[in-house]
Amino acid sequence: KVAPANAACYQLLASVYLRTGRRDEYIKTMKEGLEATRNTPGYIALLWHMANSYIDSGNVKEANNTIQELDRAKYVPARLAYLRARIEMLNGNWAKARESFEKVRPQLMMSPDLLKYVDYYIGLCYGEGGQVEQQLTAFRRAVAQDTFFLPVRLAIAQVLSKSGDWDGAIREYRQALKSGRGNEAMALALCRALLV
User: Predicted confidence band at 2 (pLDDT cuts at 50, 70, 90)?
Assistant: First the structure.
C-alpha cells in the first residue's frame, strides 16, 4: 500500500464497489479506510460518506452512530442537520423531514452537489403529502443545480405523466437520455409515454 492513510483512495475504491453492486466490499473498504485514516482530516470525510451510505441502505442505527461520531468531531452543523433530515425521511416523518431540509437549505447554498439533493428530497417529501405543484417546484430547483441529475429528471417525468402531461414527461425522459446517463428503464418509460 503506497498511501495507506489517503482517504480519497479508500473512497474511490469503495465507490467502485458500490456502483458495481458489491455492497459488502464497499463497507469493508470504508471500514479499512476509517481505521487507516483515524486522526487525519480524511477520517471525517469517510465518516460523512459512511453515514450517507448507511442511510441509503436503510440502516438507521449505524447511521445514527456515525452521525453521533461526526457530531463529537464538531462536524459542520448544516451537514449533520441534512443527515438527520434524511433519517426522518426513512422513518416516514415526511413533514418534519421537509421542514428540516428547508431550514438547512440556505446554509448549503455554497454546496451545489448537496443542495440538489436537498431540493430533490424536499420534492419527495411534498410528493408524500400530495402537494404536486410544490413537489415540481422543488424538483425543478434540483435540476437547475445539475441538468444531468437523473433521479430528479425521472421524478419530474413520473409526476408529469401521472398528471397527464405526456408532452412534458417525454421532454424530461428525452433530456435524461440525451445526457448519456439514461438507462433501459428510462428508455422503456419514454416508449410507454410515446404510446399514450
Answer: very low
Cell of 123: 420534492
Quick check: 107 and 98 in contact, CB under 8 A? no
Q: How many CB atoms lie within 10 A of CB 155?
A: 22
Mean pLDDT over all residues of the chain? 87
Give 9 or 173, the one with higher predicted confidence: 9
> Long-range contact list for 2-7, CB < 8 A, 24+ apart?
4/36, 5/36, 5/37, 5/40, 5/42, 6/37, 6/42, 7/33, 7/37, 7/40, 7/41, 7/42, 7/43, 7/45, 7/46
Q: How far apart are the first and last CA of the chain?
A: 56
Give the integer Cα–Cα distance in Å for 157 and 171: 8
pLDDT surpasses 50 at 57: yes
pLDDT digits (tens, 9 = 90+) for 16-32: 888 788 888 888 888 88
Q: Give the whole-angstrom CA distance, residue 190 versus residue 1.
A: 47
Identify whether the C-beta of residue 70 lies closer than 8 Å to the C-beta of residue 47.
yes
